[in-house]
Amino acid sequence: MDDSDAAADRRVAVVGAGAVGLTAACDLADRGVDVTVYERETVAAASTGRAAGICYDAFAEDVDARVAARAAERFRAFSGRGDFAFEETPYVWFVTEPGAKADAIREQVDAMQRHGRDVERVDADDLAAEFPSLRTGDVVEAAVARDAAVVDTSAYAHLLADLAREAGVEIREQTPASVETDPVRVNGEAYDDVVVAAGAHTKQVLAGAGVSVPLKPYRVQALTANAPSEGLPTVYDATAGYYARPHPDGLLAGDGTEPFEADPDGYDRDGDDWFIDATEDRLRDRFPGYEPAVERAWAGLCTATPDRDPLLGELGDGLYVAAGWQGHGFMRAPATAEAIAEQVLGGDGVPAFDPTRFDGSESFEVVEGMAVE
Ligand SMILES: Cc1cc2nc3c(=O)[nH]c(=O)nc-3n(C[C@H](O)[C@H](O)[C@H](O)COP(=O)(O)OP(=O)(O)OC[C@H]3O[C@@H](n4cnc5c(N)ncnc54)[C@H](O)[C@@H]3O)c2cc1C
């Protein structure tokens, strides 16, 4: 059966107009499906619009490396359309103490290279030579991923919304979805399939349909400030636990993760003073001579799962989930959304991310996604 047979007369609802839902909607419509997107707020209003927009393919697991490479390939194809640009920017990650995290970087780089990723270990002198504004004297282990970029995540979502509409998708903003099963319905309307890509609200939306998934939203923070210098890479200091990337305002830095479950309807959307103070100190320390002037600080939500892998696939008859990205949901969206769209039409999806590997009753701790261990 090819896609067009599977798509004929099919009506699919997508819950969530973030990067994942919009890409899936667009991919389904491009294959001939009649798609309606339900969005409780507006396009990119939740995590997608709050993300840092760091993209890389530096994943050590083979399935993750494959997914991320496909995502980068699609981002490049979208780049230059609308206001979206995939701005190639090396991604550097390092530790300043010997030990488990340093060992992990070495092992990760070996695995990434085996999967064909353009990643290499570098020493402190190489780093200083390539990125002179960085203080590197304390770096004990570091790596650079070359197939990496920074993007404007809202521009991506708006581009995909435009492409989806051109392909015939109806996007219903300000329309909260309530999902029911047997048969699948949204707000009482019957569909052949429903894809729940509701970000931090996914557990809630599915619970309303009587389906339990192990998913916990957790709060993370970011800020923008003036630039320390030209030609910055994206950096992640895995010892101190923060990242910084070049940004049109100068620099965007983040982390400030709270490792416990947040309420998606009640969390504080502003950056905390402690996060701003700590990030300013870290940036002063990492970029000698730099005095950060913070422009804006905010918080948003990521979603954790028990094994830190996504929940991507069919939960029951016609009911699909796409969530649980552990802070890496944007950079993988073009590939994870494509996989779920293909699965709706009879494809295999990504078997390693099959959500039925859990029954929803699992108890687990939130472990942030960027951790090197
Ligand atoms: C500060 C910060 C920095 C980040 N940095 C990065 C990064 O550099 N790289 C990266 O890859 N990821 C990053 N992330 C994570 C990234 O933002 C998410 O993984 C990604 O945006 C998830 O996209 P999504 O489409 O799954 O979810 P969302 O963008 O959250 O979209 C879900 C949508 O569903 C809607 N919705 C919810 N409930 C309902 C309902 N009942 N009915 C209808 N609509 C509903 C919401 O309003 C929302 O618009 C960051 C996140 C934050 C907060």
UniProtKB/TrEMBL annotation:
Signal peptide: none annotated. This is Sarcosine oxidase subunit beta. It comes from the Archaea. One of its GO terms (cellular component) is cytoplasm. It holds the Pfam family DAO. The keyword Oxidoreductase applies. The keyword Transmembrane helix does not apply. InterPro entries: FAD-dep_OxRdtase (IPR006076), FAD/NAD-bd_sf (IPR036188). SUPFAM superfamilies: FAD/NAD(P)-binding domain. The lineage of its organism: Archaea, Methanobacteriati, Methanobacteriota, Stenosarchaea group, Halobacteria. Gene3D superfamilies: D-Amino Acid Oxidase, subunit A, domain 2, FAD/NAD(P)-binding domain. Residues 11-342 form the FAD dependent oxidoreductase domain. Coiled coil: none annotated. GO terms for molecular function: oxidoreductase activity. Keywords: Oxidoreductase.
